[in-house]
Every structure is written in C-alpha cells, then in structure tokens.
C-alpha cells in the first residue's frame, strides 16, 4: 500500500529524522512512537502530503507521491486519504449529520442512499439517532466518534491519525482503537502517531521515529516503552 524509502527531514541544519524505511499494507496498523518533538506529526504530514520530506520517496501503487503536482495531490487526498486528529476537526456549529453530509456530497451519493449511509455510519460508531445534534453539544469522545463515522463514510484506503486518543479517557480511547482496527480489517492501511501505550500495543507494527527503526510488532514480540 505505502512504502516509505530512505525518507529524511531536515529544517535548516537540524535533521529531524533520517533514512526512515517502512511499509504499511492494507489491513495493517502501524504506530509511530517517540518522544515529544521527535517528528511523529511531521512524518505523518509527509505521508499526507501536507509537508515534504527533504530526501527519499513515499511510494503508493508504484508512484512516488512526494513528486506529485497540485492536481495529483488533490486527487490523492480525495480518493485515498482519510485523517483523524486529536481535536476532531469537525464543523462545531453544524449538526452531526451536516458534518457527515460533507463526505456524502464529496462522494456524490444520491440523497436517499446518503441518508442510509449516514445512519449506518452513526450506528457503527454507537451514535445511532444522534444526527440532529450540534457538534458543540457532544462530549470529546462523541466528537471523535463523529470523526470516525466520517472515515467510515469516506472509505479511504489510507488513514493517518495524529494522537487520536490524546484528549480522551480510557473507555473512549479503547472505542477509537476498536473502530480503527475495524477499518483496517475492512482493508484500510492505518498509520497512527501516538503516545498512548494501549494504541501502540494494538498496532501490528511499531516504528520508533527517534531511532528511525522498527522496534517490534505487537503480535508476539515485546515492545520497549
Ligand atoms: N516548518 C517547520 N520549521 C521548523 N521546525 C519545524 C517545522 N515543523 C516542525 N518543526 C519542528 O520539528 C519538531 C518535530 O515536531 P513534531 O510536531 O513533528 O513532533 P512530534 O513528535 O509529533 O511531537 P509531539 O509528540 O509533541 O506532538 C519540533 O521541534 C518542531 O518545532
């Protein structure tokens, strides 16, 4: 799905990370870990084409996406990428359904089909019947579930999540990881930057950004903190 090859990032004389190599396949979840300031978000932003690496390649279906022009970037974002942020990135003054309609309109779904798809997505994240509520009336955990419902509707093949549980209590954090795992089971590749040990332990692969190395897999190997 995504092959990161010898990727490096420097700001002036400061090298943030160097020779980063990893692969994330569909159905797989990879955690980016490392101390604050080690460059997890910057790496995620490079994968999402919000920032450019200083050297190296990020291959998707054989193409180096770091060399994409503006139109290809927009197309890649529309067809392939989904984002999940710590602070949800929802339209606060709109309703839950209106936030989700942004996706159904982008996907040009007919109205009837869109209504059913929104209802199903809300059901999947445990918010059935809550479509008419304003975002600012919801708790943080509920808002993150709306953001997840948006991903369920969007069906991206690559999800980039930046500290998606950072503002949540344990129960809500578990629910967020459950849904990310379901998305990956449906065939999505998920990359998540995290300080959260639970999130890290439920990923298939862990990449330590500060060491530029794969430090293990959550399936049967011990991952150092
Ligand atoms: N455009 C930029 N110019 C210069 N320095 C930058 C730029 N963008 C990020 N940085 C620096 O790169 C470093 C890494 O930031 P980043 O947010 O990627 O780290 P992080 O590992 O995600 O941190 P945290 O865990 O605290 O979120 C920081 O020191 C930041 O100031």
Automatic annotation (TrEMBL):
<protein>
    <submittedName>
        <fullName>ATP-binding cassette domain-containing protein</fullName>
    </submittedName>
</protein>
<keyword id="KW-0067">ATP-binding</keyword>
<keyword id="KW-0813">Transport</keyword>
<dbReference type="InterPro" id="IPR003439">
    <property type="entry name" value="ABC_transporter-like_ATP-bd"/>
</dbReference>
<dbReference type="GO" id="GO:0005886">
    <property type="term" value="C:plasma membrane"/>
</dbReference>
<dbReference type="InterPro" id="IPR027417">
    <property type="entry name" value="P-loop_NTPase"/>
</dbReference>
<dbReference type="InterPro" id="IPR003593">
    <property type="entry name" value="AAA+_ATPase"/>
</dbReference>
<dbReference type="GO" id="GO:0016887">
    <property type="term" value="F:ATP hydrolysis activity"/>
</dbReference>
<dbReference type="Pfam" id="PF00005">
    <property type="entry name" value="ABC_tran"/>
</dbReference>
<dbReference type="GO" id="GO:0005524">
    <property type="term" value="F:ATP binding"/>
</dbReference>
<keyword id="KW-0547">Nucleotide-binding</keyword>
<dbReference type="GO" id="GO:0022857">
    <property type="term" value="F:transmembrane transporter activity"/>
</dbReference>
<feature type="domain" description="ABC transporter">
    <location>
        <begin position="2"/>
        <end position="223"/>
    </location>
</feature>
<dbReference type="InterPro" id="IPR015854">
    <property type="entry name" value="ABC_transpr_LolD-like"/>
</dbReference>
<dbReference type="InterPro" id="IPR017911">
    <property type="entry name" value="MacB-like_ATP-bd"/>
</dbReference>
<dbReference type="InterPro" id="IPR017871">
    <property type="entry name" value="ABC_transporter-like_CS"/>
</dbReference>
